[in-house]
TrEMBL record:
<dbReference type="Pfam" id="PF01817">
    <property type="entry name" value="CM_2"/>
</dbReference>
<feature type="coiled-coil region">
    <location>
        <begin position="259"/>
        <end position="286"/>
    </location>
</feature>
<feature type="domain" description="Chorismate mutase">
    <location>
        <begin position="267"/>
        <end position="358"/>
    </location>
</feature>
<dbReference type="GO" id="GO:0004106">
    <property type="term" value="F:chorismate mutase activity"/>
</dbReference>
<keyword id="KW-0808">Transferase</keyword>
<dbReference type="InterPro" id="IPR006218">
    <property type="entry name" value="DAHP1/KDSA"/>
</dbReference>
<dbReference type="InterPro" id="IPR036979">
    <property type="entry name" value="CM_dom_sf"/>
</dbReference>
<dbReference type="InterPro" id="IPR036263">
    <property type="entry name" value="Chorismate_II_sf"/>
</dbReference>
<dbReference type="InterPro" id="IPR002701">
    <property type="entry name" value="CM_II_prokaryot"/>
</dbReference>
<keyword id="KW-0413">Isomerase</keyword>
<dbReference type="Pfam" id="PF00793">
    <property type="entry name" value="DAHP_synth_1"/>
</dbReference>
<protein>
    <recommendedName>
        <fullName>chorismate mutase</fullName>
        <ecNumber>5.4.99.5</ecNumber>
    </recommendedName>
</protein>
<dbReference type="InterPro" id="IPR013785">
    <property type="entry name" value="Aldolase_TIM"/>
</dbReference>
<keyword id="KW-0175">Coiled coil</keyword>
<dbReference type="InterPro" id="IPR052899">
    <property type="entry name" value="Class-I_DAHP_synthase"/>
</dbReference>
């Protein structure tokens, strides 16, 4: 993609004194619901009012949105509050209807981004529009697939492009609904620093109580904005009730978030330092999670050894691991001394786990 600087123009043109904020209900349920939420968000830091009109659901029989009728409700939001409006489009027909109803910004969901065929159809329907178009990451952690979708939109003549980081599906059970895989988002920023990147803490967490922490991490990593699902009665929302916050809670979140502003050399130093430290925090958490998984595997080995009456220490296997890790570490600029100390500590913890199981 050439002339990537053009992609940030639409965001710069908004002249915001704070990160971009996109908020509104997961799903437009009724006209009354949409307008009530919009009026409660009017005059806040919210830049765009969002509402899902078409909802791609995992299984049939779930609420799949009110359809095109909701576009008229969004038009009323714009008329009554003056806020810009946005919604998700999942195919060419959605694009046509959204543009006909003068929706100010469109986003393409994770289930659409995963298919190059769908992305091409949407790109063709968007050809030449000056509306900002945001592309969510695909459900699987595939940076090339995400970038490929953005490139298809760009090649259709759309210059006002952005990306949404909403986390990635995983079979493993974690505290997140969709694991953030922050390193992948950081890699996206490093490769395309001029494409605005928005964080979606609602879909990452699936839990309103975690929205603030994920939002703060995103801002510390220099994300350009947030998309937060907001409902005046989240407990009774027709979809994704657990991850939506009330308008008053959103206002508090916006108030409490620390925004790292760039002003002078000292500020730039502190901002860059904080960004790097946040990256280290993310990696440290990943290391702890991986070590926890490693020890669970060690527990399994301990059970097997107990059943077969095999000794805990297997010197041949241990020396093979150590030699391999020293070599792997050297390829990444890590000293032999550091690798030996680290893996000896890990190995000792593994032995402790196995001995506890065998003696238990």
């Amino acid at each position: 993609m050439e002339n990537k600087k053009e992609m940030r123009t639409w965001l710069d043109d908004l002249n915001l004194s704070h990160p971009l904020v996109i908020a509104g209900p997961c799903s437009a349920e009724t006209e009354e619901q949409v307008l009530k939420i919009a009026h409660e968000l009017k005059g806040t830091d919210v830049s765009y009012f969002r509402a899902g009109i078409w909802k791609p659901r995992t299984r049939p029989g779930m609420f799949e949105g009110v359809g095109a009728l909701g576009l008229k409700w969004l038009q009323k939001v714009k008329e009554e509050t003056g806020m810009k409006i946005c919604t998700e489009v999942a195919n060419a027909a959605h694009v046509k209807l959204a543009l006909e109803h003068d929706v100010d910004m469109l986003w393409i969901g994770a289930r659409s981004t995963v298919s190059p065929f769908i992305m091409q159809e949407i790109a063709d329907a968007l050809e030449g529009t000056d509306k900002p178009v945001l592309v969510k990451n695909p459900v699987n952690p595939d940076l090339s697939l995400w970038l490929g979708g953005i490139e298809r939109i760009y090649k259709s003549g759309v210059k006002n492009i952005g990306a949404i980081h909403r986390g990635f599906s995983t079979y493993e059970k974690t505290k997140y609904r969709n694991i953030p895989e922050w390193q992948l988002a950081i890699e996206f920023q490093n490769r395309f620093p001029d494409i605005p990147l928005i964080n979606d803490p609602s879909h990452i967490t699936g839990n309103r109580d975690m929205i603030f922490d994920v939002s703060q991490t995103a801002l510390d990593l220099n994300f350009d904005g947030l998309m937060i699902e907001t409902h005046y009665d989240p407990e009774n929302a027709w979809s994704d009730a657990a991850q939506q916050v009330t308008p008053s809670s959103l206002i508090e979140i916006m108030k409490d978030l620390k925004i790292r502003k760039e002003s002078d050399t000292e500020e730039e130093y502190n901002r860059t330092l904080n960004n790097l430290r946040t990256q280290i925090d993310v990696i440290d958490n990943q290391i702890i999670e991986l070590l926890g998984k490693r020890m669970k595997s060690a527990d399994g080995i301990g059970l097997l050894k107990k059943q077969k009456n095999v000794s805990v220490l297997q010197s041949k296997r241990w020396n093979e691991i150590l030699g391999k890790m020293v070599w792997e570490g050297e390829q990444r600029g890590l000293s032999e001394e550091f690798i030996l100390k680290m893996f000896k500590a890990i190995h000792q913890e593994s032995i402790n786990h196995q001995e506890k199981i065998i003696k238990g």
